[in-house]
Amino acid sequence: MSSAWLLPEHIADVLPAEARRIEELRRQWLDLARGYGFELVMPPLLEHLESLLSGTGRELSLKTFKLVDQLSGRTLGLRADTTPQAARIDAHLLNREGVTRLCYCGPVLHTRPSGLYSTREQLQFGAEIFGHAGLEAELEVQELALGGLQAAGVPQLTIDLGDARIVRSVLAGALLDGEALTELVAALTAKDGSTVRAMAARCPAETREGLVALLDLYGGEEVLESAGRLLPARSPIQAALADLAWLTGHLRRAYPEVQIGFDLSDMSGYAYYSGVRFAIYGGGSADALARGGRYDEIGAVFGRNRPAVGFSVIDLKNLAALVPAGPARAAIRAPWAEDDGLRSMIRTLRSQGETVVCILPGHEQETEEFDCDRELTQVDGHWLVRAL
C-alpha cells in the first residue's frame, strides 16, 4: 500500500530555501526581459491538444500528458512547452503589426523525465520575438539568454550554434519516408555513425557524402570553413553558414568570455526549428540550460505565418541547483506582545521593505532561513531596532 505522502516518480516538492532561490531567479529573468522590451503573458497550463501540438512534431506529442475534458468531451493536453502557446497568442489574440516581444515563466509537465535525476515538472522561462525575419532578432534572444545566465551566476558558459537549414538541405535529395527521415535525423544528432552510414547508403551520392560529413562537423570556428568545403554547394547551406559567421562575430564582441562552438548535425529539441538554433551549457551541467532558435512556420496553423525566434531556459529549478546560494536574507527579530507600540513598529518596518520575524511564544530559537542580525527591543518605553 502506498503512503499518502508519496509523490509520483520524478515529481518533487520544493522546500523553503530552494523555493526562495527559484523565485529570485524567476524575478531576475522577468526583470531582465522587461529591460529588453518583452511583455509578460501567462498562457493556461491546459489547452485543447491540437492547439498545443500544432506544427511541433512527434517529439512534443510524446512528452504531453493527455486527458478528456469532462465538459466538452474533447482531448486536452497539459503543456510540455510554452512556445506554441506564445505563437497562438501573437497570431490569434494580439494580432499586431510589426514586432511583438513576449516572455513567460511557468510550469511545464512531461510524461517522461529526460534523464535519471530529471524532474517531470519543470519551471520554464522563455522569450519570443514575432514579426522580424532578420538576424537581429536571433542576436537579441541569444544576448538575453547569455546575459540572464551570467546574471544568475552560471560559470563557464558555452553556446553551441547550428542551423536547421543545413540538415534539411542535405536531406533534400534523400528518398526516404517520414519515419526513416526522423530516424536518420535522430542518428545524426546522436552522432551514430553506423546508423547514418547504413541509411545514407540508400541516398544519392551527394546526399550520402553530405550526411557522412555532418557527423564530424562540430567544434570551433574551423567547422564553418570545413562545412563550406564538404557540404553540397546549395544556397540554403551557404546562407546558413554566413548567418552563423555573422552571429559569431557579434557574440564574440558582446561576450568575449563565452565559449562559442558549432554542431551542424544537432537537431535536438522540437521539430519546429526552421533556421538558426542554439543551446547554452554551463556550470558543469551535461545538459543544456537553455535552447532556442528560429521557428517561422509555427504560427501558420493559427492563421498567421510570420517570422518568429525565441528561446527557453529549460528549468529554473535545475538552474537554481547549479548556481551558488546567496546569503540568508537579513531580518529583524521581534518579540510577540500585545503592546500597541510594538505592533505599530513592526507594521512600519515591514512597509519599509524590512523582514521582521515575530517570534511566537515558546519558539524563541526558530528563524529558519533568515539571518536575524537585528532585534526590536524596548528602551525607556520606546521600541528600537538594535544590532545583535
Automatic annotation (TrEMBL):
The keyword Magnesium does not apply. Its main location: cytoplasm. Residues 10-313 form the Class II Histidinyl-tRNA synthetase (HisRS)-like catalytic core domain. GO terms for molecular function: ATP binding; glycosyltransferase activity. Keywords: Amino-acid biosynthesis, ATP-binding, Cytoplasm, Glycosyltransferase, Histidine biosynthesis, Nucleotide-binding, Transferase. InterPro entries: aa-tRNA-synth_II/BPL/LPL, HisRS-like_core, HisRS/HisZ, HisZ. SUPFAM superfamilies: Class II aaRS and biotin synthetases. Pathway: Amino-acid biosynthesis; L-histidine biosynthesis; L-histidine from 5-phospho-alpha-D-ribose 1-diphosphate: step 1/9. It is found in: Cytoplasm. NCBIfam families: hisZ_biosyn_reg, PRK12292.1-1, PRK12421.1. PANTHER family: HISTIDINE--TRNA LIGASE, MITOCHONDRIAL-RELATED (PTHR43707:SF1), HISTIDYL-TRNA SYNTHETASE (PTHR43707). Heteromultimer composed of HisG and HisZ subunits. Belongs to the class-II aminoacyl-tRNA synthetase family. HisZ subfamily. HAMAP family: HisZ. Required for the first step of histidine biosynthesis. May allow the feedback regulation of ATP phosphoribosyltransferase activity by histidine. This function is generally fulfilled by the C-terminal part of HisG, which is missing in some bacteria such as this one. This is ATP phosphoribosyltransferase regulatory subunit. It comes from Ideonella oryzae. The lineage of its organism: Bacteria, Pseudomonadati, Pseudomonadota, Betaproteobacteria, Burkholderiales.
